[in-house]
Amino acid sequence: MRISTSQIFSQSLNQMNTALNDVAELNMMESTQKKINRPSDDPAGIANIMNLNAYDQSLSGYMDNCGTATDSLDLADQALMQVSENIIAAMELAEQGSTETYTDEQLQMMALEMESYLDSILAISNTQMGADSLFAGDDLGNNAYEMGLGVTLPNDSLNDANFASMTGEIDSTVHVQFSEPGVIGTDEIDYQYSTDNGQTWTTATLAAGDTTIDVGTAQIEFTTGTPVTAADGNGNGTEFYLREAAHYTGSDTAMSVAISENTNVDMTTVGSTVFGGVDPTTNMPYTEPNLFETLSDCIVYMETGNQDAVAACLDDLRDAHENVETGSANVGARENKISYTEQSLGLIREVTTNSISREEDANATQLIVELEQANYVYEAVLRSTADIMKMSILNYI
């Protein structure tokens, strides 16, 4: 078979290109330290790598959620510890106020101290992690609590359901008494109120058919058909105290985040389940134990020198303290759950990273050997091609 000069040149060029391509491929692998640099290198391998990278990114997202939730829960745990300390101090104060060894003036001073504990716990209940409220459920952008109005009922002549709404503002506790019996919404009824603990009284009349009474700068609307009796000043009859109350303005559902494929955890807490307070949508206090309402009632009873009622508040404070401790334990349990999950995710991610490495990373030792071989082959092709190119018919004469 006759081999033409053009065939020699063509075959030589193909051999040089093939050898050079092998060298270039191995040089790229050496520079990137990866054996798969483009989909065409290994279509099946690149598909596995893409799946593993996607899974690794999902693990990274879960671990980020774990970190965020841990930070929030850790701060909430510290906040609840401070609340517990305040409650213990409030219980000690209530215990002193229930011993009947203090004058009315001293009890009023205790009431001021009790207000400081209430203010402190209110501030703690509005703790934020950055711009997110920790005790407002999933309503992250708002405070969990705001101060509004509430009532303390010294006897059973009224109940919370008799109050439809309370609006306006007060500077101090307002003592309200009805002066005659009747049915609100039907009868004309005289009443009186005092803003200085009974030293002076202001009289007024609720018109027949009306359900709202004015007590200075505040208004109280009763439910139609509420019966009242005349107060005699000795604890009998219809009377109550209008005072400030903590209204829960957060959500009834906690903010939940995914910390693994099948596991969610609440990173915030529904404050009403821990601190109580008043539900602004119904104007009704949350079920007992209700920390904020107990503190507010205790302040009123200290202001009015009702030591027996202060003693009753002490028992309620103990229950509220246990409830806060339970809430703190719940936060701690969530922290532990996240910690264990985060450790598991770390191990899984380590395995995933190793799998990606085995799939795409080059063997450095083997790569060096192959590169040396490719360079040797390329140089051999160049030498042989050069020798062939220099041959002519004269070499055979």
Automatic annotation (TrEMBL):
Name of the featured protein: Flagellin N-terminal domain-containing protein
A Pfam family of this chain: Flagellin_N
Residue stretches in coiled coil: none
PANTHER family the record matches: FLAGELLAR HOOK-ASSOCIATED PROTEIN 3, FLAGELLIN
Flagellin N-terminal domain segment(s): 3-137
Superkingdom classification of source: Bacteria
